[in-house]
Amino acid sequence: MLTKPSVPGVAIKSAVPIHCDVHSRRFHRRYENIQIETFGHQTRKVDPIEVDASSLTSGTSLVVTWRDKRVVVRHRTEKEGKDGEAVNLADLKDPIARNANLPADAPATDANRAAPGKEAWIVMVQICTHLGCIPVGQEGDAGGWLCPCHGSQYDGAGRIRKGPAPENMAVPVFQFIPNTKIRIG
Question: Model-level pTM greater than 0.90?
């Protein structure tokens, strides 16, 4: 689905291949429900950015580039939200939320990883905390993100569940303005 870019030089595509190339291993898979926004070489990156999430329906994601990092905006399904709430904090490898919108020691509850008042929405930096690879969405045993390079697995809220990654994926500063636009940064 192509939509009009909200920032000059932004290209939005669907069904974009995801690549990971580490130690001569290659991973490539095509996704139907992911959109990616990237800045062109001529466009100056601005901070913060605004993302129009009005086209996202339950179970779909949008990936944008912010500060040279991939940030995923996911509108979770009801099942993903319930699964996230059911996680026992003692079972988590990293008990800290890693949410820039909360105090540094906030626990990694599902509510502390989601958008306040909009628990169906997740906004996080889509970079594996092990070696900086790009995890693939809706994969792995926890049904969240899987880093195909070294096997780290995150749940639907971006919390590390298995593998060598030491921390949960980071949640950047963001806010909804008013209901379907998200300001990141």
Answer: no
